[in-house]
Amino acid sequence: MAVLETMFARQKVLIGVVHLEPLPGSPGWGRDAGAVLERAVADARALEQAGFDGLILENFGDVPFARRFAGRGAVAGLGAAGARVAEAVDLPLGVNVLRSDGQSAVAVAAAIGGRFIRVNVHTGVAVTDQGVIQGEAMKTMLSIRDMSPGLAVFADVFVKHAAPLGNISLEQSAKDAVERGLASALIVTGEATGSPAASEHLTRVKAAVPATPVLVGSGVTAETAGAVLREADGIIVGSAVMTSGRAANPIDLARAKAFVEAARG
User: Fold this and answer.
1) Do 86 and 115 contact (CB within 8 A), yes or no?
2) Confidence at residue 156, expressed as pLDDT on a 0 to 100 scale
3) Fewer Cβ in 10 A, N or C end of the chain?
């Protein structure tokens, strides 16, 4: 798809996730910013060395996540880590501010030269472990206009750890995110971090918005990567390339290389 080719110089893309350790203001903050930044750079370099096409930074260590504004500490920490990563690697960068803080993601991306953001609830309403989250597509798109024109929005459809509120179909949710929310790409996930997305959901979303790239954002392993990439336009992978296959662990270079080889093979 055009947006992926323009950004990554590939039609089928592999995006690795850098799970940041707890940032200032979060319950788990350890008051060692240097260690957080060093870990972020090491993970980013490992993903680049393994052959990934792009990276996305997430404040994954900030559990429990805020429902709306992630907080000044999260924004500052993501900005500091993103700036270091941008200097260390030569890959397109994305930002995901959990739980669904699109406006902060835009600000961080603008500061670090990011090319895309991920928004978990861009349009519609979802019941999540943070409570009820309403999409704020208009505010996010206005922030892009003001701070980072051309920034792409990768929006989740029926995002993991959540359930849509109201009687809306998967297809209509996908169409709303693209046609009314102006998302550049969509992401299909399983029910939770590390759980596979249903192949039927991927097929249905692609059929609903055939001109829009659709990526799989959870549960892909080295064993399934090749088959998934034949159907999807890209994969966003975290847990599968981390030590012991567990989210929030450091990137395991050997696992990351094996994943890329399996996906491309």
Assistant:
1) no
2) 97
3) C
